[in-house]
Design goal:
The complex is a heterodimer of chains A (about 100) and B (about 500). With about 100 residues, chain A is mainly α. Chain A contains three helices and two strands; from the N terminus they run αααββ. Chain A has a domain of about 40 residues: Orthogonal Bundle (Histone, subunit A). Classes of the chains: A mainly alpha (about 100), B alpha/beta (about 500). At the A-B interface, helix 1 and helix 2 of A face helix 9, helix 10, helix 11, helix 12 and helix 13 of B.
């Protein structure tokens, strides 16, 4: 398989990464090289093999629905690009 | 002092032959002198380190039989810049986090500093978001290998490896998603351990591929690694995949004789694709193990050639999801000019991430997208199962598996930077271990063309103490791990 330039641009948009046409061309050639490596998987018959998502066969732990963390909003917002009155600021979304 | 083991440093501190402040200053001076050439550290904060050292000295001074100081209290350590440390800039090697000062500690940092009294010397350089095998993808520039500054130290924990190899620190932390502790350890003549998945908490360790990432120690010897793992390991309720198991003393079996040890040699690790000099050193190390009473048996990992392809689906898939948090809203880089919210995301991510990180996000986005999920992501997960099952079968015949850590010694800066696939193949022997979730080590076993060679040891699940024993006995019989690069004294 081989990715087209339009596919590369579409994936970049899905990933919310702006990409110029010249970057997309370089990326296309790199990704196609990588997918050539990945394609080796397709030759393997894996019918009946249980997919392995995780190294350990354990169930997710549950905990009580209780507040355990202290309020550290000021410390966490100190590293934000833009905040006001305890809120994160982003460009206007609704006119 | 720069040559002392952690045990010797611990004894010197307890006997008050040296203070933690003096020891910390000694390494800070070395960093000031040698780091401009090596670029192993991206952040040092001498005042912060010395404050921790003063606190450690106070702990040692007030220690008593009832309340002894920890064995590693007062010993300086370098921290890979993937671990969030409160008040420290934590960059993960990326422009995206170049100005991020962490508001909290990773569990590994808390255990090392607050619980054990280790002194952080600074944050070490790394491939951006741990994606790389040469440390060349760092926003802060490449790290030089102390054995030959025209060569890479390996990656992604390349700064940690170079720092310990040049004795800018007695030991360091690393993380390993596909070989990022073991491969740089091999290329810089260090001992490095990637524990069983779930043994070391991932809380506050910036996520790359969550089902594979695991933190571990990088140091001069197996004994040092054992003492560090004692401090790093343990259940953490803040990490949903942390394993709730009884605490272990990982140094308990260090001295056990190796008579009767069955070493499995996978025929796939001893075929083509490995440099002759590397292979010769590995074969010589196996002969040494036979002298120590071990026997060898050929085993097979028939699907190991599929580990790199499967990894480059699974790791990017998880990374594309994990790195979606970097959107320029709550922390990290935000582009200066943008037209609207979507444009802000697109420009912040385009300008904040480097080329390799973007490539992996794009691969991950593609393999998870509609119509491709089954062919790529599910197929990779099925192959992951086959790879893990191969190890289960092999461990029925042997106690430990051995082979090369890396197919070559340290390569030249720039040599593989233009070809992602060539770079990915540097991890051909290490990746399967992460997919299976097993513990693995790299141990210095000789030189080829004047450059260090690493022997990889792979153990069964939770066999860290045994691996450390197997490595330690080798280090009692050989002195490869004691060799230092020219000019380092």
């Amino acid at each position: 398989m081989s990715l087209t330039l339009e596919q590369v641009q579409r994936i970049a948009h899905l990933a919310r990464i702006e990409i110029s046409e010249s970057e997309a061309r370089t990326t296309q050639s790199h990704l196609n090289g990588i997918f050539q490596l990945i394609e080796q998987m397709q030759a393997v018959d894996t019918r009946g093999v249980e997919p392995m998502a995780h190294a350990q066969d354990v169930a997710q732990r549950l905990r009580d629905d209780a507040v355990t963390e202290a309020d550290r909003r000021a410390a966490f917002q100190a590293v934000a690009p833009e905040t006001e009155a305890g809120l994160y600021l982003v460009p206007k979304v609704i006119e | 002092m720069i040559d002392a083991s952690l045990k010797q440093l611990s004894q010197a501190l307890a006997a008050k032959r040296i203070s933690s402040v003096e020891l910390t200053q000694l390494f800070l001076d070395r960093i000031a002198r040698l780091n401009p050439t090596l670029n192993a550290f991206v952040t040092v904060d001498p005042e912060k380190s010395l404050n921790s050292a003063r606190a450690a000295d106070a702990r040692i001074a007030s220690a008593s039989g009832v309340k002894p100081a920890g064995q590693l209290t007062g010993i300086p350590i370098a921290q890979k810049d993937i671990f969030c440390a409160e008040g420290w800039r934590t960059t993960c090697g990326s422009k995206m986090l170049a100005n991020f000062v962490s508001p909290y500690d990773a569990t590994v940092i808390r255990k090392m500093e607050s619980d054990a009294g280790l002194v952080s010397l600074g944050k070490t350089n790394m491939d951006e978001f741990a994606m790389g095998s040469s440390n060349e993808t760092s926003y802060f520039g490449p790290v030089k290998n102390p054995w030959d500054p025209s060569r890479v130290p390996g990656g992604s924990s390349g700064g940690s490896a170079a720092a310990v190899a040049a004795r800018l620190a007695p030991a360091a932390t690393g993380t390993d998603t596909g070989g990022s502790i073991r491969q740089p350890a091999a290329l810089c003549n260090l001992t490095g351990l990637k524990p069983t998945y779930g043994v070391v908490s991932r809380y506050g360790m910036i996520a790359f591929a969550s089902s594979l990432d695991q933190g571990g120690p990088m140091a001069a010897s197996a004994e040092d690694c054992a003492l560090l793992l004692n401090v790093m390991a343990g259940f953490d309720e803040r990490d949903s995949t942390s394993l709730d198991r009884p605490l272990e003393d990982y140094a308990r079996d260090l001295e056990k004789p190796l008579a009767g040890l069955r070493i499995g040699l996978p025929r796939e690790f001893f075929g083509e694709g490995c440099d002759a000099g590397v292979m010769a050193a590995v074969q010589a190390a196996i002969k040494e193990y036979e002298k120590l009473g071990a026997t060898t048996i050929e085993v097979s990992l028939p699907n190991s050639h599929l580990s790199v392809p499967a990894y480059y689906v699974i790791a990017p898939a998880e990374a594309s999801s994990n790195l979606s948090r970097f959107d320029g809203v709550r922390y990290g880089f935000r582009a200066e000019d943008y037209a609207n919210l979507d444009d802000m995301y697109m420009k912040s991510r385009a300008q904040g991430f480097g080329a390799e990180v973007k490539r992996r996000i794009l691969i991950g986005t593609y393999v998870l997208s509609h119509g491709y999920y089954d062919a790529y992501y599910l197929q990779a997960q099925r192959i992951r199962r086959l790879i893990a099952d191969d190890f289960v079968a092999a461990f029925r015949q042997c106690d430990v598996i051995m082979g090369p850590t890396s197919p070559s010694t340290a390569f030249k800066l720039g040599e593989k930077a233009a070809d992602p696939v060539q770079m990915y193949l540097s991890d051909i022997y290490t990746i399967a271990v992460n997919l299976a979730g097993l513990p693995g080590m790299s141990v210095p076993c000789g030189f080829a063309g004047g450059l260090p060679v690493g022997l990889q040891l792979i153990g069964n699940y939770f066999a860290e103490a045994q691996l450390l024993n197997v490595a330690h006995r080798f280090q009692l019989a050989t002195d490869w791990h004691r060799r230092l690069p020219d000019g380092i004294e």
